[in-house]
Amino acid sequence: MTEHQEQPAQLEPMPTDWRRALAVVAHPDDLEYGGAAAIADWTDGGREVVYLLATRGEAGIDTIPPEECAPLREAEQRASAAVVGVSTVEFLDHADGVLEYGLDLRRDIAAAIRRHKPELLITLNHRDSWGTQYGGFWNTPDHKAVGRATLDAAADAGNRWIFPELLTEQGLEPWNGVRWIAVAGSPTPTHAADATAGLERSIQSLMEHKTYIKVLTDQDPHEYCRNFLTGFAERAAVRFGGRPAVTFELFSR
């Protein structure tokens, strides 16, 4: 007899009743490898998305010293964000590769949440590994630190007694309006956003990271970006009514 195999659960559609989102990740290109197709569609619909990066990715290219690499990667991130309709890109200037989860990181992210007042927070996989659908690779310390700090900063931003200096020194009133945190690249996704409209721009957005991609692969850059992003979008389609999709693990608040 053929053994019955349970089908994976279908993914729920991402919520759409929001106007402002803040995407918080560790490095330039983190969003382009997971969320850009969804972000392009959201900005097309009139929603505002702001990018916040903990580092400038200055330790990411072995052949370029950090002091030269940082401005290159910052410029590429700004160009990449513009492709998908994001005009505000901020950097926290934490050191690339040695990010630590802790109060400083939580405070910086909470401050950004208070400034931008998002209803939706977006971050990258905070779990130890990427799971089998992403090759089973161990996750990096930077991704884990920023993802976990973002999840916690959502509550920090709304509590006036946590980091009171944000109010007394920076004039940032508490913001308790975050309704969801969406984790891109999670090994345990629960929701998805249709990538049909934004997929081509997500490919162009990833290609803006020319300096990084050049040392990352020997493939033609366009072929590499297209194959990577369309491959994941098509695999997600199996759990999203046959539509190419970007997946998220969604936490409600």
Describe what you observe in this structure.
The protein has 253 residues and is an alpha/beta fold. It contains eight helices and eight strands; from the N terminus they run ββαβαβαβααββαααβ. An eight-stranded mixed beta sheet has the order 1-7-8-6-5-2-3-4, with helices on both faces. Helix 1 crosses helix 6 and helix 2 (66-83) runs antiparallel to helix 6 (199-207). The protein is globular. The N and C termini lie far apart (46 Å). The model has no long low-confidence stretch (mean pLDDT 95).
Q: What secondary-structure arrangement, pairings included, does this model have?
A:
Layout: E1 12-13, E2 20-25, H1 36-44, E3 48-53, H2 66-83, E4 89-91, H3 103-116, E5 120-124, H4 141-156, H5 165-168, E6 180-184, E7 191-194, H6 199-207, H7 210-216, H8 221-237, E8 245-252
Parallel strand pairs: 1-7, 2-3, 2-5, 3-4, 5-6
Antiparallel strand pairs: 6-8, 7-8
Helix pairs in contact: 1-6, 2-6, 3-4, 6-8
What's the helix count?
A: 8
Terminal CA distance: 46 Å
Mean pLDDT: 95
Structural class: alpha/beta
What percent of residues adopt helix (DSSP H or I)?
25-40%
Helix-strand sequence = EEHEHEHEHHEEHHHE
The rounded Rg comes to 18 Å
The percentage of residues in β strands lies in: 15-25%
- Parts with pLDDT < 50 across at least 5 consecutive residues: none
Tell me, briefly, the overall form: globular
Instruction: Please report the total strand number as a whole number.
Output: 8
| Lateral arrangement of strands in the main beta sheet | 1-7-8-6-5-2-3-4
Major β-sheet profile? 8 strands, mixed
